[in-house]
Amino acid sequence: MPPQIPHPEPGVPDTRGPLWYVWWLVRCQPWRVLRGAVIGTAWMIGLSVRPYLVSRAVDDGLRAHDARALLLWVAAIVVAGAGLSYLGIMRHRTMTFVREDATARSAAVLLRQLSRIGAVLPRRLAAGEVATVGGSDIGYTSQVLTMTGPGVGAVIAYAVIAVVLWSVSPLLALCVLLGVPAIALIIGPLLRRLERAESVYRHQQGVLTTRAGDIVAGLRVLAGVGGRGLFARRYAARSQDLLAEGYRVGAVYSWIDALTVAIPGLFLAAVVWLAPEWRSPATSRSGRWWPSTDTWRRSSCRSGSCWRAATG
């Protein structure tokens, strides 16, 4: 069910810290968040169904030269694809409702606090800072709630695939289990660098927004005394500084995005390469490895994306 926006009464937020505030946003819509977690988990675990069906089609149909079995498994692949598509649509729809509810609730709380401060606000906080909070910070906070849906599903799917691989080969399961910790160890320093770069960018953006407001407010006076060109040049210089800082933030973002895709890919390649060496005769069928490795790759990428959203 879509959220009723705007909220007549957003509630009293928990301001003891960032995590407490996010937990308050979750508690304001528990059933919607629970639905997103259930659908996200079903979608992530369901990603292993189609590779498994493909493996059965290879083993029971192609290798056995059984056309009837092949057609049966192909039909099952089509049905599974339709089911996963429905789950994916419902997952995205539910998580969009969760984020929109959190955004509207945070905006209502912010507006209520600003109205309480009243005329004292300009002396306590710059106009650019307020604009930055309302324009970007609220959206970033809502994105963190993504970890309650596909984030939870990625963790559970990761554990399920590890258990399945452990039954096949403990060494392969141990190799797979090193994937997410490796992502954390490699991306952790980049996240701290991203936090520093974004803090500088956010401050410069607030200052530039404040300067733009001052120029607009005093435009007639500036035109009268001939200072319009001077302020325009200063604004252009500040804009170039902000642009350079934005490139710094974008460079760190690009490295993080690249590593969250490359590291699971490298581990998947290692698993595929080691599988023939470590497999047992009972699990030597060609299609047996597809579900575990493919779903592990997807769950690892999803875990990295959600963790980046939660910490960035």
Structural description of this entry:
The protein is mostly helical. The protein has a single domain, classed as ABC transporter type 1, transmembrane domain (ABC transporter transmembrane region fold, Up-down Bundle), CATH 1.20.1560. It is built from twelve helices and no strands. α2 runs parallel beside α7 and α8 packs antiparallel against α11. The longest helix is centred in the first third of the chain and has 51 residues. The chain is elongated. The C terminus is likely disordered.
Q: How is this structure best summarized?
A:
The chain has 312 residues and is an all-alpha fold. 83% of the residues lie in helices and 0% in strands. The chain is built from twelve helices and no strands.
